[in-house]
């Protein structure tokens, strides 16, 4: 298998086109991440044109997230078995075709189905990218730069989606938030066919686990569905408890299956790596807080500070800009000089500080004085933390399991983001309702809810910091034997 893996993507490596190949991979990832949030600003227009009910409108986002998060692990393993290039190309084709169907949607049901199919394509193309990057850039310094670029896409895609969705909907129409994927997808597909060399995976016979695939896909889809419906039904409702229990039961059955199967979908041996397991736990906590921050900040700027939709989109740009500068231009040098663990801890400290500042921002906040410094800290901290965490998580992945590790990392990110957003949204809304009941005016009540979300987010990152400091600490280097003096 090693020789087959080493041949993978050899053409870019030999011709010096690896960085263009990386751009293609990142373009695919960016489309997938952007489409999680690009519909947010367009939902009122979509509801008006297609006749969505208020509860049904949530499925424009929910259908995409359920398919995306639910199929990432399966997509990563299929990349190892069938070849990561093949899975990436298939995902790109499905995503681009589904984007056309989304833009042409004539009924609410047609849009929901097309969004689900779009999520399938997003899962397939995204799941294998990190594994392809690890193979494409074996040299540590170049790999750090490549992972930094991918981390920028992962970290800033949501902000870019919010900004792009508002601008496109205002200038053209909501249909074009989907149609814009088509030329990008076609160009990426043409370049990928030229730049990514063919590879053969280990074959389905070496790891085909249909029952395991069904169990984990059902478990992840059920759990993500449960999470994204929490705000509507509540944590203690029969709906949440019932579907949550079903998802956990399916997940437990999957783990039992993996321990006994001859060719498991997720070989449990991968969790023997302290760095891979620890990095996934840290990523889950980190993304849970940061997804909540992004959506909370949009609502805070709109409903408390009073910015319009377009102004809010532009107000979030400094975060994406800071992430870009740090992850693309600085993080690789920092990781090489100081080590990923130290850079990760420093980034987490900045994130705690940024969230803490937002947690005390007033209702009459000045954007320049009260909000911008926090956004700069958060962008810088995330730009440092994400590349370091990804590098730590992928460091022990073998060539045979790099697609699986990539899919696991992306699954952790999506599920953590969905859970964090649901938890912070519910706690924020509950706090707002309590304050309204105590006689606070609407602005003060909303502010109190958002401040609570920021403070809880800061607490989650602080827990992440402590965990990373203990669990991801590098092993001490072995001391060189002392020379014996000549007699």
Automatic annotation (TrEMBL):
Predominant location: membrane
Keywords: Cell membrane, Membrane, Transmembrane, Transmembrane helix, Transport
Domain Major facilitator superfamily (MFS) profile residues, every copy: 21-476
Listed transmembrane segments: 56-75, 87-106, 112-137, 149-168, 174-196, 208-228, 234-256, 277-301, 313-331, 343-363, 375-395, 415-432, 452-472
Top-level taxon in the UniProt lineage: Bacteria
InterPro entries with a match to the protein in the record: EmrB-like, MFS, MFS_dom, MFS_trans_sf
Pfam families: MFS_1
GO CC terms: plasma membrane
Coiled coil (UniProt feature): none
Membrane topology label: Multi-pass membrane protein
GO molecular function, one term: transmembrane transporter activity
Keyword Transmembrane helix belongs to the record: yes
Subcellular location: Cell membrane
Keyword hit for Nucleus: no
Protein name as annotated: MFS transporter
